[in-house]
Amino acid sequence: MQKVTWEEVGAAPNAILSPAYKSNGHVFTSGSVGFAPDGTVPEDVTVQTKYAIEALEKVLKTSGSSLDKVLKVLLFIADPLDAPAVNAVYKEYFKHQPARSCVVVQFPDARLKVELECVAVYE
């Protein structure tokens, strides 16, 4: 089992979790949320979804994988009415349609509207 570090990803360290772990040809990621590169939280769910997927993509790339190697996505959304907007962005990035679950949640930070985690293969 190999830990992927925040330093490798190029992000500020998070004391309570790792961005990903690699084991037996698979990458298991932590959740990625829609923070903008400057650390702010955009109000628009479409923009948050884009940033969250791009953050996930960076973790996967660091881990030797990519979005097109994702097998399973777990998607969390704060408002079920946002699902169509989230799905529109999601389809742009996940053209191969990996297995997916979607759960409506209440985030500890009320500004957050979307979070994604995944399992992917790596080489």
Automatic annotation (TrEMBL):
Output the superkingdom of the source species.
Eukaryota
Q: Please give the CDD domains that the UniProt record associates with this protein.
A: YjgF_YER057c_UK114_family
The UniProt entry's sequence similarity note says:
Belongs to the RutC family.
Q: Cellular component per GO?
A: cytosol
Q: What is this protein called?
A: Protein mmf1, mitochondrial
Task: Give the molecular function GO annotations.
Answer: deaminase activity
Q: Supply the PANTHER family for this chain.
A: 2-IMINOBUTANOATE/2-IMINOPROPANOATE DEAMINASE RIDA (PTHR11803), PROTEIN HMF1-RELATED (PTHR11803:SF58)
